[in-house]
Amino acid sequence: MDKERIYRRYHELQEYVGWSAEDAARVARAGAVLRPYLPALIDDFYAEIKRHTEANKVFADERQVERLKLSLLNWMDQLFSGPYDSEYAVHRWKVGRRHVDVGLDHIYAHAALARLRRGLARALRAQWPADATDFDETLNSLNTLIDLDLAKIEDAYAAEYLDRLQKSERLAAIGQIAAGVAHEIRNPLNVVKTSVYFLLNAKSPSPERVAEHLARISRQVNHANDVVTALSSFAKPPALQLSPVSVTECIKNALERYSPPTGIQVISDLPGSLPNVRADATQLAIVFGNLIRNAFDAMPFGGTLTLSGTQNGRQIEIRIADTGVGIAPDNLSRITEPLFSTKARGMGLGLAITNAILAKISGRLQVTSEIGQGSTFMVQIPIAAGIDRTEPKP
């Protein structure tokens, strides 16, 4: 609870409605007239609550009701006496939070104040001196003050709602991440488990079979490590280590690390003379690794991955095109959102990380796609200042 913020907002509301010392004086005069009638108004207030199941169910027993009656009497006494300062604003805000804590829906808070307002107005009209001429002004000041109280109660409801919503969203996000991590890591662990079982129990396995299973274990350990790295990179991106980087070499290394599955052909049209870019080599490798893996995943029944690159002014453009399943139009605008994924497996962090890395080096990611025809991801990265081209590879 930020007391300074609570009072600042309350003071802004006072200024907005034009609350003045004259209003406070009129409310104090009304309080002198109304105080003898407050207990009866409070009894009526709780008697009405008992007639409404939804409102009454939040009150446990009669002892609680008696305590609440004393609290309401104190609230009304402070309403008339003020002072309408920081302490007053915080107390009103706490009243709203208390309503939330006991489970009282905010519509009943509105209705409760409306009933009290009517009772106060009725009693004030009945007891107002006959020779007084400022009844309307006094009632207006009292209604303004009650409206300000209601605004603080609503503020507390809104703050509690936002707090609970954020907690709920955090828990949902944690659950989604946990499910994704569990799924992504369980699969390689199962492969490792079967290979270890083979190595421990096979009778005189050939060197080729041993090498095959060791390679499987290595690949799956690398995959599990990639999952953990992606998660940690998203939670706390490492600092950039900028230097001139050859995109052609970067993509070549990514292809060596993520070899194409059976049935997928890779066509590379990446000139060795493409300009260097100013980037973090490690993080740029993550960018192209994510995009290449996604392309492979999009072609479960085989297809063609085409990599091409050109220079366009002071930037290079790399296109990664697949002949896969494509992306639905409704999902295109969401594919870089954290935790959004169109895959049956995956955490939905790859493209979010890719987009974040490119943004840090003034790069861009664009995508076009057609269901059943495939997708093309275009990466645009500025050329490193003062460096036009890499030396062609011999």
What labels describe this entry?
394 residues; alpha+beta; five-stranded mixed β-sheet; two-stranded antiparallel sheet; 7 strands; 62% helix; elongated
> Structural class, please?
alpha+beta
DSSP strand tally? 7
Query: Widest sheet: strand order?
Result: 2-4-5-7-6
Task: Determine the mean pLDDT.
Answer: 83
Rg from Cα: 34 Å
**Could you spell the SSE succession in H and E letters?**
HHHHHHHHHEHEEHEEHHEE
- Helix content estimate: 55-70%
End-to-end CA span? 67 Å
Quaternary organization? single chain
Largest sheet, in brief, is: 5 strands, mixed
Strand content: 5-15%
Low-pLDDT runs of 5+ residues are 386-394
Structure write-up:
The chain contains 13 helices and 7 strands. It is of the alpha+beta class and 394 residues long. A hairpin with a 2-residue loop joins strand 4 and strand 5. It starts with a helix and ends in a 12-residue tail after the last strand. The C terminus is likely disordered.
List the topology elements:
Layout: H1 3-17, H2 21-34, H3 38-50, H4 53-56, H5 62-81, H6 86-102, H7 106-127, H8 135-201, H9 207-235, E1 243-245, H10 247-257, E2 264-269, E3 277-279, H11 281-297, E4 303-312, E5 315-322, H12 329-332, H13 350-360, E6 364-370, E7 374-382
Parallel strand pairs: 2-4
Antiparallel strand pairs: 1-3, 4-5, 5-7, 6-7
